[in-house]
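Assemble and predict.
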Amino acid sequence: MRARHPDRQGYAERGGVRLSYEVFGEGSPTLLLVPGWTLPARSFKAQVPYLARHYRVVAFDPRGTGGSGRPRGATHYALDEHVADALAVMDVTETASAVLVGKSRGAQTALALAVNHPSRVNGLVAAAPFTPLTPWPPLDAAWSSFQQRRGWRRQVQGLGTVLREARHVARSKSFRLFGRSLAPTEAAKWFNRPSMEADYDAFTEWFVTRVVVNDPYATKQTEDVIGWMRETDGEAAADAFMGDCLRDAEETRKLLAAIECPVLVIHGDRDITVPFEWGATFAELTGGRLVAMPGAGHLPGGRYPVKVNLVLREFVDALVSATLPETVEAPA
Amino acid sequence: MRARYPDGEGFVDHGDGVRIFYEVYGEGPDTICFLPTWPIFHSRTWKGQIPYLSRHFRVIAIDARGNGRSDRPREREAYSRERHVADVLAVLDATETDAAMIVSVSPRAPLALQLCVEHPERVRAAAFITPQLWQIKEFVDPFTAGDRVAYDGYDKFNPRYWKRDYAGFIAWFANSIHPHPHSTKQIEDTISYGMDTDAAALIPATVGFEMYERDEALALAGQVRCPVLVTQNGGGAMWPKTCSGPLAEASGGRLHVFDGLGPAVGSRWPVAMNLVLRDFFESVRETTADAPQALATGGGTK
């Protein structure tokens, strides 16, 4: 059962990888929803029914998730691939340009797409953007354990990175939150390829209950996210995580500096998956609007849909009225 | 933090020294009054209904004697049905409400029924949510079972257990009326309402409030002249469903069954409950517009 069923669904295809997409409504402009790591389009289920009453909404399952293909090997999950996938979905749905709504890792795709294909993008919404801008020890530990071979020595090195960097960022609010809810050793133990591949069910349960959904009264959201993550498998999840995505602040800053379209950032101030500082800096560097969600964790769109939906609508409506003169001239 | 704050609030005391608290939301000629509940709850239990309904109607919510911001007398006489009727009338007077559309829940259905029958000029319509009008075996048996070594499940519906472990009873009750997954907030809320009072108030409130005999209740229901809505939860064993059908039939009211939802529909599925309540009260609003004329020409009994 869904609150709103798609008016059209289908597949785009790129290099033998099929990409499942859904189209809702027929308003204007079009919103392209880009989900986060291991999550399918359904992860926007609390946004789609509302937004589709006002706009045309296109949502797709990124490669490795939902009804899309699961190519093997991290190279298939490079940022360029994700961007090309999003463009392919826009093409097949005859979407000349769209407002991009990227959540978590999906914000990277949206950002790169907006920089490299500005004519296809009217605006950019980054929800809890997974775009590295300040040191984030838990993640650095995960990356170092990914880049190296399995084995206790490497694990210990990963842990060392955590402890070394922890000293530098110990004063950040996000890290204090993280430290209070999760020991870095626990994060290092779980967040690596062997753990994902050995028992993906156990990994998803740990990841969602301990890291992603830390909001109170969110049992349904927790079950939903675990269920969506389990539509894929540990190998695809690890490949997608390792894929050549944004890793360092310099590269991220370069992309942000090149953004010309209007930007909205939505970020929970209790997010321990992606530090709030990343979202705040994202907004600052793009001159965008930052909407901090007090008390919210990593996925405010699921736990506080009304607030998020109203903020999204306000942003899109402002875009529409700002571009109104152009629309009037367009027929000529 | 609340989704909607009251526009007015106050206390009434109709002479027995017990202060009764009420809140008023919104404005307009059509007033919905949420009646006092069994004081394991207080008026915040309507928080899923008030913000929505007060956009369309004026809404009054009353804290029952025994909980919320009302006083907590410890004598059973203070909880008689008659005193509850006086509480409601005093609040209607204090808020300058000539007549209200009333909403009762479960074991406070007799209060609504008495208001309908004895004060028909103050009641424009009555919604009975999961009504319980007469005593039923499922509650009487454990309640009168005396002391036990251990209290399991429904055994906890026993005043001796409440005295021994009130928090244990409240926790069991809150979980029992919210058996569905994803009810953690509703369970916590229900526990907080229950823990706002204590066994020394809840016991006299439970034994002091007179229920009807079945035949008496149905005979009175036949005398009700205002529009009636009876809602019945379709899930959960906690609240018995034996009164709903007979009450709807005897009063000529509408019966709405929430298929698969419940027991606590209003808190766990507020949208479902709100739409049914609004639909009913809107129909009353429309009929009442023509009412003066109809009364003038028709008169007499239905």
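Residues 104 and 120 of chain A are 21 Å apart (CA to CA).
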